[in-house]
């Protein structure tokens, strides 16, 4: 996860995704942190479609999204051109708001 995060922060999403795929090929299962990191990296790299794909894969693997997941997805929606307001609104509707402190 740390290497995927480093790749994502350097806008090397292809390397981050290749690492994620290699993990799967080696039998190393992803976790929620893996998916949140990939989703956030896609948002940082202005790759909203990749963020969506990772979100759907996260759900397919039965991981529940967290506040961080939704924050990264909203950032990805805002990074789309034009801004994907419908997607952002649908994400907001899914979030159960509760205080974090």
From TrEMBL:
This is Pentacotripeptide-repeat region of PRORP domain-containing protein. The lineage of its organism: Eukaryota, Viridiplantae, Chlorophyta, Pyramimonadophyceae, Pyramimonadales. The keyword Repeat applies. Belongs to the PPR family. P subfamily. Keywords: Repeat. PPR repeats lie at residues 1-30, 31-65. Pfam families: PPR_2.
